[in-house]
Structures are given as structure tokens and as C-alpha cells.
């Protein structure tokens, strides 16, 4: 059940409804929008009298949401969620451009890429310190040392940082060193990890699982919101299909569909979505054309020598060209970088 408050409802109106719900043994999860507050009720709703809430003067309406996801649903919150990361308003008219290497490899590598990205006006940098590698003998990331390098370099250049967290035991370290926590494709249905990042307030970049349906993707986001963190940025990064020419199949229809179903921002990762350098720019352009709120792209100062994903990282100069080429598409959809 979703309880939608009128625009003028006060904090104490909301608190009294939350208390009534708790007294019945259910969990109220508030979602504070710019215009109105909404409460989603989690638990056995039969305990609640819908008519009673509807009769309250500060309640606009009570809705039964039929979809399995409630808090992330557009029905619950028609206006888009906008998440501010270092002045970039993700989900607004502004297109968010996140770039950086697959992995943190050294201070020199990070400093070099950060200095190039800074000159291009990039305000959010990515790099992995904990890497989810298919094989146990592949480079696993620098761990804590990687977090420290990322943090220092981010601060030096005034860029926010995004990094993946693989293990609930690392959430504290990752959230003290970085600005956005990434949940990777392989962990999209690691429900205990989702609950834990739901308990922290940093924005979460949630990537679509390799074999996840759109409903499963939105339910993964629902886990995070229902545990108290409303700041989720979705990321379409391609799914596994029978196709072998590309690393994954970048499912761009996800973008306009998710926009219909949910108020959360969604960005696209054409790097992992294709695994091929030549396809990154065309797919980034297509992503913006179909309504994505931004893109995340791997950029490395020396891709051939990269310790992970060497085949798919762009040189800073190639990324700069992409930024120039994408501008007319950004203009055409009435947005700005
Ligand atoms: C990454 O962004 O470094 C990564 C491993 O991505 P994904 O989880 O989408 O494979
Ligand atoms: Mn990578």
C-alpha cells in the first residue's frame, strides 16, 4: 500500500501515520519528494484499513501498487528522482558523464587519467579497487590501497569517485573513501549486500545483472530503497545472450522502459555493454538519444597495459573525441552535459 500525502502535509502528520503503521506491526518507508511525501507500507497490508487513511485531511490518496516493486515505481512517485553527485544532478536535464579506468593500478596511472579527465570537465571518476574477476588468478584489485589512491586523486582534482563494493565487510571503508558505491552486475542479486548498502546514505550505482530481467533489476533497487537509501542510480550494462561478437548485448530498450516504470535515474555503460572500443561511441550516442541520464565509460592512459579489461578502455584523447561527437545528440534531446 502507498499513502500519498497532500502537498501541505506536515512532518508530524507523516510521523503520526508512520506510528499507526508501526503499531500494527508493519514497516513504513517514507519517500520524500520535492512536492509531496509518500509512505510505502511493507508487510501484511490486510492489517490496515485503507479507508481510515484515505479519510485523513492531509492524505491525498491511498493506492494499492500491483507491481512487485513499490518504492521505485513511477506510480508511487511520478516526478523523477534527482541525485546530486559533486554538482552533477543525475536524473535532471543534465547528462552525467562518468569516466575512469577499469581498475586502480597505481598512483601514477590514476593521476594521469584524472588530470586528463579534469581538463575535459569530468566531475565524476570511476575506478575499481575490488575487482570481481572471472578467474581467481586474474588481477583482483589493490583493495584498501586502491581506495586510498582513488580518494587522494579524486580530492586533488576535485572529482567525486565511484568504486565497486563486493563484500558487506568493505562497505565502511568504501563509503569513507568514495562518493558513490557501485554494485556490480555479478552482485545485483546479492540481497544481503543490497540490504547493507540500503543502510548507508551514499548514492548507489546499481548495475543490471548479466541475466537479470528488468523486473529483477528494479526489485534489486527496491531492496536498497526499502532499507532506507533512496539514492539509487540504475545502470544498463548489457546482458548475456547467444551473441559472441560483443561481450554482452546492450539492451537499450531498457532505458525508455525503466523511465516508464520507475522514477530512478538510469545511465548506460557502453564499455562493458559491448566490450569493443569501436562500439563505445555509437552506443553512448544511442543511449543519450533514447533518454539515458548519462553514461559511464572506461578510460585508461595506456589501455594495452591495463591490468583488467585492456580491450575495451579508451585513451583520454578518444574519450575527448566522444564527448565532442555526443554534444549534438545531447542538444537534440534538449539536455546539457
Ligand atoms: C566494472 O564496472 O568495473 C564492472 C566490473 O562492471 P560490471 O559489473 O557491469 O561487469
Ligand atoms: Mn571493467
In spatial order, strands of the major sheet run 13-12-11-10-9-8-7-14
Helix percentage? 25-40%
CATH superfamily heading of the largest domain: Aldolase class I
Point out poorly predicted stretches: none
Distance between the termini: 38 Å
In CATH, the topology of the largest domain is named TIM Barrel
Number of domains: 2
Number of helices: 11
Give a verbal description of the structure.
By secondary structure, the chain is α/β, with parallel strands linked by helices. It folds into two domains: 2-63, 2-Layer Sandwich (Alpha-Beta Plaits), CATH 3.30.70.1140; 83-332, Aldolase class I (TIM Barrel), CATH 3.20.20. The chain has eleven helices and 14 strands. The protein has helices at 11-23, 50-55, 107-119, 144-157, 171-177, 191-198, 214-226, 254-261, 270-274, 277-289, 316-332, and strands spanning 2-5, 27-32, 37-42, 59-63, 83-85, 88-90, 96-100, 124-126, 160-164, 180-183, 204-207, 232-236, 266-268, 294-298. It has an eight-stranded parallel sheet. A four-stranded antiparallel sheet has the order 2-3-1-4. Helix 3 runs parallel beside helix 4, helix 6 (191-198) crosses helix 7 and helix 10 (277-289) runs parallel beside helix 11 (316-332). The chain is globular, with a radius of gyration of 21 Å. It starts with a strand and ends in a 5-residue tail after the last helix. 45% of the residues are buried.
Amino acid at each position: 500500500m502507498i499513502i500519498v500525502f497532500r502537498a501541505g502535509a506536515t512532518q508530524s502528520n507523516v510521523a503520526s501515520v508512520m506510528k499507526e503503521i508501526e503499531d500494527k506491526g508493519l514497516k513504513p518507508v517514507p519517500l520524500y519528494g520535492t512536492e509531496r511525501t509518500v509512505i510505502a507500507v511493507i508487510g501484511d497490508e490486510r492489517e490496515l484499513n485503507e479507508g481510515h487513511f484515505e479519510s485523513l485531511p492531509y492524505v491525498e490518496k491511498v493506492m494499492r501498487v500491483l507491481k512487485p516493486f513499490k518504492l521505485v515505481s513511477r506510480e508511487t512517485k511520478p516526478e523523477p528522482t534527482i541525485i546530486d553527485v559533486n554538482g552533477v544532478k543525475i536524473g535532471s536535464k543534465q547528462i552525467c558523464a562518468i569516466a575512469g579506468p577499469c581498475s586502480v593500478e597505481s598512483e601514477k596511472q590514476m593521476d594521469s587519467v584524472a588530470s586528463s579527465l579534469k581538463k575535459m570537465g569530468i566531475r565524476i571518476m570511476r575506478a575499481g579497487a575490488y575487482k570481481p574477476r572471472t578467474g581467481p588468478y586474474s588481477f583482483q584489485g589493490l583493495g584498501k590501497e586502491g581506495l586510498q589512491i582513488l580518494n587522494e586523486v579524486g580530492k586533488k582534482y576535485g572529482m567525486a569517485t565511484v568504486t565497486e563494493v563486493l563484500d558487506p565487510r568493505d562497505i565502511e571503508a568504501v563509503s569513507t573513501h568514495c562518493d558513490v558505491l557501485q554494485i556490480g552486475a555479478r552482485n545485483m542479486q546479492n540481497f544481503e549486500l543490497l540490504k547493507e548498502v540500503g543502510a548507508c546514505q551514499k548514492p548507489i550505482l546499481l548495475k543490471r545483472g548479466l541475466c537479470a530481467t528488468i523486473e529483477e533489476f528494479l526489485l534489486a533497487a527496491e531492496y536498497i530503497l526499502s532499507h532506507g537509501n533512496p539514492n539509487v542510480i540504475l545502470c544498463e550494462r548489457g546482458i548475456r545472450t547467444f551473441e559472441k561478437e560483443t561481450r554482452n548485448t546492450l539492451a537499450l530498450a531498457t532505458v525508455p522502459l525503466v523511465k516508464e516504470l520507475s522514477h530512478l535515474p538510469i545511465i548506460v555503460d557502453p564499455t562493458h555493454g559491448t566490450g569493443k572500443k569501436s562500439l563505445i561511441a555509437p552506443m553512448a550516442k544511442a543511449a543519450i538519444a533514447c533518454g539515458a541520464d548519462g553514461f559511464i565509460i572506461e578510460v585508461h592512459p595506456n589501455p594495452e597495459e591495463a591490468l583488467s579489461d585492456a580491450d575495451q578502455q579508451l585513451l583520454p584523447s578518444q574519450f575527448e573525441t566522444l564527448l565532442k561527437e555526443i554534444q549534438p545528440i545531447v542538444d537534440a534531446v534538449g539536455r546539457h552535459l
